[in-house]
Design goal:
22 helices; eight-stranded antiparallel sheet; five-stranded parallel sheet; alpha+beta
Length: 755
């Protein structure tokens, strides 16, 4: 990525605007805090930066939630906008421009962009068949409809997208649709809507993408090019709702803009709401960089749709140059759910009494950059006690306490020897590396390097032992150096833990004005320090136990699983061995198409790129009793070193197939979600077979010979069996897939189809 702070340009930093219809949880806060960390770093570098955040307020989600709570949409948004702001303030997210997409300013900008798109010929009209509820006398927007997905048969698919397989849908495509308001079956009626003509904009959009996507995170680049490869189509930008920005076109006055049209425009509207000179940023592409942070579910809205809106105006808008996309943060092997009280939400974090700096540190050091990560209370305690307290807290407290006690709080005049100078050069090298990483928006790696600086300092203190050393000159040099190292640490952690940074500087009685102060001995001999005070406190086992219990919620799937041995795909995740089934082996095989498949655990022992196909790998796999060669199309998704040594699941009774001249004897299994591909990663030993939960070990042993002798199948037969990922758990026919040793995790993908 480009070094932003070296350009002298204006910089706009945005975080995806969270939906206002609920309390944000820690997973929602990852991109918000990431944007704040990066902005704070830029401010310390004296960059000309503004940061933008707000609430996404229009659309079906707000109307639906308002109905549930007995409020008008505006009352609901007013209620939750206040909650959101209080939570972001508590987490010390300091945005220059904070606002709401329901503002007058955003409506003005949205209407202006629409009018120019219409004038320039990028708005089309078309008649849709849309579901209409005769009882409620209204057309039903996508999220007012629920039914069975036509792709994967999931029974609770929304009208806009199936949460289980990720397929984008139109509501009328659902099987057995129901109105979510009254539960009646709607009828189909025709209605005319407006569309953004993406195919007409595609050439200009592609040209822009090719110029800037080198500055994008891998997941953003992969998903965007998957959309382009599939071919862009016209996208509807209006909805039959009341809550939203009214369409300023004759014949469409009773419609509003779809929320995904005005929501990204909200970045501009919120800036206008807060800054009189907003045009100096948003109409200044040659001298402004736009850096955007978001979760992976928001990628196409920012890399395809929002830039298309701006390009289509033919105004000189500032377009996004850099994008940093995080994967999902899960909670204790499950998902956050406010309705079931599962997980830590913003208001919960406040109620724990734990410092916001600790939450900020944990979310950034665990930032899900390449794959989904998980919040776990055990890990949270470990990170706090072993990293924050024992590293940063320990070094700061010991240094300042020693100066308070033995030097009357005055920094001694120190003369560094060659060992001190070598140590300081190592610190400076780390600081240069940290600066480079933050410039490149490698937020997690930069934080790990910062902790290494703290570790260096603790090692230096321990090796020099000033409390034992009778040599006053050496002792003075050591404390002089450590005082300045603590000052540097206060600067380095400032983007991540702003409260702790300020408290360190207060104890040092020092004002470090900018990043340029790093590596300097700006705390001179004779400087008077403040009084040492603990920065952080340990989290005890008892507290962790209480937190885990408080935020565990009531998972309805647990009871079902214990009773039947079958995990509910929407709730609990089973990691136990398969449980007994009363079905006879013959009936299991006769009734279940899954049992045509011979799935085994294998280890990749060698991998190389196919010499005749740029997207294919040739992998040698070990099945325990034999080795095989397979070919996979994983080059766009994994490096060779990421695959080597991985345990995977392979279809071992697939007919051999020649792929560009190389015979593949099997197929590895991976899941796909919006163009992102992740491997299925089993627990178990090499060679073990994969089963559906519900078959016990005794049954499996009796079936083993049958499984071993299964005939070869064609690839079409494999695809007749629908294997899906739901909540990072793998299912076939609503039964979790497992080995005898445990469950199967999924890399990168939370919901999607297995192929």
């Amino acid at each position: 990525m480009t070094t932003h702070t070296a350009t002298g340009k204006k910089i706009i930093v945005t975080s995806a605007l969270p939906y206002v219809n609920n309390v944000p949880h820690l997973g929602n806060l990852v991109c918000v805090i990431s944007a704040d960390v990066y902005t704070r770093f830029l401010r310390l570098k004296k960059a000309n930066v503004i940061s933008v955040l707000g609430t996404d307020e229009h659309g079906t989600t707000s109307e639906t939630k308002a109905l549930e709570e007995g409020l008008t949409p505006k009352e609901l948004c007013d209620k939750y906008a206040k909650i959101h702001k209080e939570i972001y303030d508590w987490f010390k997210c300091d945005f220059d421009c904070y606002g709401r997409t329901s503002s007058k300013d955003n409506a003005e900008v949205t209407i202006d962009i629409f009018n120019k798109l219409h004038k320039n010929g990028y708005i089309a009209k078309d008649t849709l068949e849309q579901l209409y509820c005769e009882k409620d006398a209204r057309f039903l927007a996508d999220r007012y409809v629920e039914g069975t997905c036509p792709k994967c048969n999931y029974e609770h698919a929304r009208g806009d997208q199936c949460e289980q397989c990720g397929t984008l849908l139109n509501a009328h495509e659902l099987v057995n649709p129901k109105c979510k308001i009254c539960k009646n079956t709607p009828v189909i009626k025709k209605t005319t809507h407006l569309f953004i003509d993406l195919p007409k904009l595609e050439p200009a959009l592609r040209d822009w993408i090719m110029r800037v996507d080198k500055n994008w995170s891998d997941n953003a680049r992969t998903m965007t090019h998957a959309w382009l490869k599939e071919g862009l189509r016209q996208r509807c930008i209006t909805r039959d709702l009341k809550w939203g920005i009214s369409v300023p076109l004759q014949g469409f006055e009773d419609k509003v803009f779809y929320s995904w049209f005005d929501a990204p425009i909200g970045y501009i509207g919120i800036t206008k709401e807060n800054k009189k000179d907003w045009k100096d940023y948003w109409f200044n592409p040659e001298h402004t960089r736009l850096v955007q942070f978001m979760g992976k579910d928001n990628i196409p809205f920012h890399t395809i749709l929002f830039p298309s809106f701006l390009i289509g105006t033919k105004d000189d808008y500032t377009l996004m140059t850099d994008i940093s996309v995080n994967e999902f943060l899960n909670y204790e092997q499950g998902q956050f759910s406010k309705s079931r009280s599962v997980g830590v939400f913003g208001d919960d974090a406040i109620a724990t009494g734990i410092s916001p700096d600790v939450f900020r540190y944990y979310l950034m050091v665990n930032r899900p950059e390449k794959t989904d990560t998980e919040f776990s209370w055990d890990d949270f305690q470990k990170k706090n006690n072993a990293e924050i307290v024992a590293n940063i807290g320990n070094l700061v407290n010991r240094t300042i306490t020693f100066l308070n006690r033995f030097y009357d709080s005055k920094v001694p005049h120190g003369v560094l020897d060659e060992n001190d100078k070598t140590f300081w050069e190592e610190v400076r090298s780390k600081e240069h590396r940290i600066t480079q990483l933050l410039d490149e928006i490698n937020i997690k790696e930069a934080l790990r390097e910062i902790m290494q600086v703290g570790k260096f300092g603790n090692q230096y203190l321990q090796e020099n032992e000033p409390w034992k050393n009778p040599d006053e000159k050496r002792k003075a040099a050591c404390l002089y150096l450590l005082a300045n190292l603590v000052k540097d640490l206060a600067l380095l952690i400032a983007p991540y833990m702003p409260q702790a940074s300020q408290r360190i500087l207060q104890q040092l009685q020092h004002h470090a004005g900018s990043w340029d102060d790093l590596g300097t001995f700006s705390i001179a001999g004779g400087h008077t320090m403040g009084t040492a005070a603990l920065l952080f406190k340990k989290i005890e086992d008892k507290e962790i136990s209480e937190f885990r219990k408080r935020f565990a919620g009531t998972k309805t799937g647990v009871a079902t699983e214990a009773k039947t041995g079958i995990a509910d795909p929407g709730t609990a995740k089973s990691t136990a061995a398969p449980v007994p089934s009363t079905a006879a082996p013959s009936s299991v095989f006769a009734q279940n198409p899954f049992n045509k498949l011979q799935l085994r655990i294998a280890e990749i022992v060698n991998v190389k790129k196919h010499s005749s196909a740029e997207k294919l790998y040739i992998e040698e796999i070990d099945l325990g009793d034999e080795k095989r060669t397979i070919v996979s199309g994983l080059v766009p998704y994994y490096r060779e070193d990421e695959l080597l040594g991985k345990k995977i699941i392979v279809v071992t009774n697939l007919e051999p197939a020649k792929l560009r001249g190389v015979e593949s004897n099997g197929m590895l299994l991976a899941a796909e979600e919006h163009g992102v591909v992740g491997l299925l990663l089993p627990q178990g030993n090499i060679g073990e077979y994969i089963y559906q939960s519900g078959n016990d070990q005794k049954v499996n042993e009796s079936l083993l010979e049958t499984v071993k002798s299964l005939p070869k199948i064609k690839i079409d037969e494999f695809f007749q069996t629908k294997i899906i990922v739901k909540n990072k758990t793998v299912f076939c026919d609503d039964r979790e897939l497992v080995s005898l040793s445990g469950g199967i995790s999924v890399d990168k993908v939370s919901h999607g189809a297995v192929r």
